[in-house]
């Protein structure tokens, strides 16, 4: 193999190493370079941390239909800069991704705007128009390239329809990602139900609106013996149910998001619409239960639920502003905070890479010879101010706006190509 690129001085699991790349693959990761470097592209990473390119299994990229919030090109830019080589995009676009033509359109747009990656995998609508009444043409969507199905944003309340969808999806070898919410209990809610919702005079969303549906999914999954993946888990009761299910060997998997780990409902004080999200931010007890569950593997993965919205939408009154937090740009910096909470780099790679790949049957390149050269180089010490200029997403709606975060992706290689890097590395 003809060595093309040598990246010197990267830190991998506390060792200083050099990465050797050829034909888009990692040839070797070595401590010493014992070959001639003539005619190779050589870069000095100066001690940046090496991590594999990550996976975000739950984003909203808004195209087609809401390109003013985000489009596939800008969303993939935010993904590349956030450290994600693969994103799975939800179906609540306009038109909704409930037919092959929309899936194909999304895939074409991704290829056109970012031919070398990051890679977009669409998630097909579970029901037509996300209306929860009739199954979407799941086989057609799978064939077009959808990697999972979900009614994200709009729960399927009818258990018979939901059951048939889960069975049909599984026959196609794909999983259902369920947005667990009882739409009657959650109706018109804007914030977690509790003291703060009363204080602010806002209709609350009780945690039982989520946990009831988590219980339904667990019981269905057990009865059918078919896996179901639970989206953005936000509360303690859900964690307890998932723990019970896993003890019983029920094939449930679950995700949560950085905002549920690092914020509570208090972030909504003073009617801060940037912290308005569905499911809502909850209490300290919920936050602790989620962290514990993540550490113990009760919750399997982290996702951003990247939900970009325009400023004018978030500037409305709290009750009227849309739900959602823009998350691709900040996810890695926030996740690095977990290193101080008993998590290792290996855990972070599991939560944002290995595990989502296993759950959804996606490719994931480990950092070892023979694997695709998909990796990021991260400056752990860099402090950056979250502001509209430092976010690559069009969605500037993050509760961390104006805050400093630590840790930033400096370079992102995908299949041996530099897809993100400050002013592109000389020579690329
Ligand atoms: N998670 C969110 O807060 N928002 C999602 C949809 C949704 O799940 O309500 C969005 O598409 O904006
Ligand atoms: Zn979502």
From TrEMBL:
Catalytic activity: (S)-dihydroorotate + H2O = N-carbamoyl-L-aspartate + H(+)
Residues engaged in binding Zn(2+) 2: 152, 179, 232
Sequence positions that bind Zn(2+) 1: 58, 60, 152, 305
GO process annotations (BP): 'de novo' UMP biosynthetic process; purine nucleobase catabolic process
Known cofactor(s): Zn(2+)
Active site (catalytic residues): 305
Cofactor binding annotation: Binds 2 Zn(2+) ions per subunit.
MF-aspect GO terms: allantoinase activity; dihydroorotase activity; zinc ion binding
Tagged with keyword Zinc: yes
InterPro entries linked to this entry: DHOase (IPR004722), DHOase/Allantoinase_Hydrolase (IPR050138), DHOase_cat (IPR024403), Dihydroorotase_CS (IPR002195), Metal-dep_hydrolase_composite (IPR011059), Metal_Hydrolase (IPR032466)
GO cellular component, one term: cytoplasm
Alphabetically ordered keywords of this record: Hydrolase, Metal-binding, Pyrimidine biosynthesis, Zinc
SUPFAM superfamilies, alphabetized: Composite domain of metallo-dependent hydrolases (SSF51338), Metallo-dependent hydrolases (SSF51556)
UniProt keyword annotation of Zinc present: yes
Pathway note: Pyrimidine metabolism; UMP biosynthesis via de novo pathway; (S)-dihydroorotate from bicarbonate: step 3/3
Gene3D superfamilies assigned: Metal-dependent hydrolases, Urease, subunit C, domain 1
Domain Dihydroorotase catalytic residue range list: 48-238
Function: Catalyzes the reversible cyclization of carbamoyl aspartate to dihydroorotate.
NCBIfam families the UniProt entry points to: pyrC_multi
Protein's recorded name: Dihydroorotase
Lineage of producing organism: Bacteria, Pseudomonadati, Thermodesulfobacteriota, Desulfovibrionia, Desulfovibrionales
């Amino acid at each position: 193999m003809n060595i093309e690129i040598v990246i010197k001085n990267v830190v991998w699991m506390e060792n200083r190493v050099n990465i050797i790349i050829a034909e888009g693959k990692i040839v070797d990761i070595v401590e010493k370079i014992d070959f001639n470097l003539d005619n190779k592209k050589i870069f000095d990473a100066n001690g940046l941390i090496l991590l594999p390119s990550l996976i975000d299994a739950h984003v909203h990229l808004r195209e087609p239909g809401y390109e003013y919030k985000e489009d596939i090109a800008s969303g993939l830019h935010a993904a590349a800069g956030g450290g994600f080589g693969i994103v799975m995009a939800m179906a609540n676009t306009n038109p909704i991704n409930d037919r092959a033509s929309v899936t194909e359109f999304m895939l074409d747009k991704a290829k056109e705007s970012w031919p070398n990656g990051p890679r977009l995998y669409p998630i097909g609508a579970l029901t037509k128009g996300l209306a929860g009444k009739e199954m979407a043409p799941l086989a057609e969507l799978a064939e077009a390239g959808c990697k999972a199905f979900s009614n994200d944003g709009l729960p399927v309340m009818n258990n018979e329809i939901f059951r048939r969808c889960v069975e049909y999806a599984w026959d196609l070898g794909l999983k259902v990602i369920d947005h667990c919410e009882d739409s009657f209990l959650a109706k018109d809610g804007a914030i977690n139900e509790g003291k703060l919702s009363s204080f602010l005079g806002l209709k609350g969303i009780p945690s039982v609106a989520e946990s009831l549906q988590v219980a339904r999914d667990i019981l269905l999954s057990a009865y059918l013996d078919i896996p179901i993946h639970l989206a953005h888990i936000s509360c303690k009761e859900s964690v307890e149910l998932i723990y019970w299910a896993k003890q019983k060997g029920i094939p449930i998997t679950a995700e949560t998001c950085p905002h549920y780990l690092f914020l509570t409902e208090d972030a909504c004080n003073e009617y801060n619409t940037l912290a308005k999200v569905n499911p809502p931010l909850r209490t300290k007890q919920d936050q602790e239960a989620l962290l514990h569950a993540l550490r113990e593997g009760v919750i399997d993965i982290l996702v951003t639920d990247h939900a970009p919205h325009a400023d004018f939408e978030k500037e409305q009154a709290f009750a009227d502003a849309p739900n959602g937090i823009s998350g691709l740009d900040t996810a890695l910096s926030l996740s690095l905070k977990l290193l101080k909470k008993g998590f290792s780099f290996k855990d972070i790679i599991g939560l944002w890479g290995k595990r989502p790949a296993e759950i959804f049957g996606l490719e994931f390149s480990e950092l070892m010879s023979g694997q695709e050269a998909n990796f990021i180089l991260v400056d752990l010490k860099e402090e950056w101010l979250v502001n509209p200029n430092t976010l690559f997403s069009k969605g500037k709606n993050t509760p961390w706006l104006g805050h400093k975060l630590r840790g930033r992706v400096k370079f992102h290689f995908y299949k041996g190509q530099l897809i993100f890097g400050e002013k592109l590395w000389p020579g690329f």
